[in-house]
Amino acid sequence: MFERDFLGFINDNQLADSTTQTLLAVSGGLDSTVMAALFQQAGLPFAIAHVNFGLRGQESDDDALFVEELANRYQVPFHTIRFQTAQVAVERGESIQMVARELRYQWFGEIRRQYGYDSVATAHHLNDVLETMLLNLTRGTGLAGLHGIAVRQEHPTVGALIRPLLFASREQLETYAAARSLKHRDDRSNADDYYARNRIRHHAVPALTGINPGLWATLPRTVERLRAAEQLMQLELNRSWQQLIQTEPDGAIRLPINGLLALEEGAFRLSEWLQPYGFTREQSRQAWAMLMREPGQQLRSATHQLTHERGFLLLSLVKVTVLSSCKTTIQGLLETRNRRVCGQLICCSYHSKPDGFVPETDKAVAWLDADRLIDPLTIRVWQPGDRFRPLGLAGTKLVSDLLNELKLEQRERAQTLVLVSGDTIAWVVGCRIGHQFRVRAGSRRLIRLAVASTGE
């Protein structure tokens, strides 16, 4: 029965078939172990990928061994990688959860493209959907946040990402695993109420299923209604946007104030319209209030500006001067202490590696292995097509993609520098160092680079 439900869900949503190759993300826990068993039972072609985040010592290594044995038992391709997640999180100054998620999906995307898999599958289920809905609700959200996790999406890093277990609750997965005598690994951190999601899982969800024991049957219908409501809302927003706007020859957009004021729920519509242009909810409220005031006021997002002109709001791109020709070559790195480049001061100092060395988390500072740098170094503005290997990642990434992920303002993006050693980017200045130049256990001589604006 459960296996039939799985196949029905797969077929109804066109997630996989006998001609597709799916890369399963398997941690070794209950959910992903059941997912692998279901794919095997259904005869669907698949491979297994496992990420060892190195966060739980021997337990993490045992998880990796368990998943490898699972792949061998099913006689399917196995891919694995180990990350020094905690170290990368410290060096980036970001949370372990955020770094682990980025490392994981970056690697999945690389493996999918390298080996030609059609999609990557994760083992999210109905409990995850409910937890996500409740978590988003507590933080504040719209309809998109309330319908939780998509069955299929085009992920910016992974590509095609599917969730073939979104038809089932965790209790159903547990029942299936017990009936099939499926062994799996347990992550003790899932029992820790320190994390908000775990508190929701351990306390809020049981309370809700106590109120409605049939919750897992009604939840998918609720999610589908919310998703349909969001689609209808987007259609109406697009229709009224096209009816209202006036486009200038230079691409700027005019929003007539009388037209805005005549709309039902005009403030809500304006907020939704401005969001793709980088404006926050608070800025959208300010924009609506601007309609009642004298012309001349202006709001800015990272990429656009909204100006109150007489009779309309003008939405236009922020004009930025691109320093494409800015470039400095440094010969004799050891004699160089600082250098002014494109209005920024790059300060340099050398150190012997001390015992217990921990790099600063300030993104304006980079610690590199001096012995891996090649003279001469070049400092220049990044260029379209520039690629580098960010710290902690297995493959390369476009610098432009990194800047997008960091959500830098357009002015900052245009003036971002890169430090190039030979033909390899060692540092996207103020953002991320290159993995090849990181400080290792065996590093002896370190270089500390810091960037500051000179106001030039």
UniProtKB/TrEMBL annotation:
Q: What does this protein do?
A: Ligates lysine onto the cytidine present at position 34 of the AUA codon-specific tRNA(Ile) that contains the anticodon CAU, in an ATP-dependent manner. Cytidine is converted to lysidine, thus changing the amino acid specificity of the tRNA from methionine to isoleucine.
Reactions the enzyme catalyzes: cytidine(34) in tRNA(Ile2) + L-lysine + ATP = lysidine(34) in tRNA(Ile2) + AMP + diphosphate + H(+)
Molecular function (Gene Ontology), one example = ATP binding
Transmembrane stretches, start-end: none
Its family remark reads: Belongs to the tRNA(Ile)-lysidine synthase family.
One of its GO biological process terms is: tRNA modification
- Record keywords: Protein biosynthesis included? no
**Comment block on domains:** The N-terminal region contains the highly conserved SGGXDS motif, predicted to be a P-loop motif involved in ATP binding.
Q: Which organism is it from?
A: Spirosoma oryzae
Q: What is this protein called?
A: tRNA(Ile)-lysidine synthase
- Which residues belong to any copy of the Lysidine-tRNA(Ile) synthetase C-terminal domain? 377-449
Gene3D superfamilies hit by this protein: HUPs
E.C. no: 6.3.4.19
Q: Which gene encodes it?
A: tilS
Which PANTHER family does the UniProt record give? TRNA(ILE)-LYSIDINE SYNTHASE-RELATED (PTHR43033)
EC class of the enzyme, as a word: ligase
Q: Which UniProt keywords apply?
A: ATP-binding, Cytoplasm, Ligase, Nucleotide-binding, tRNA processing
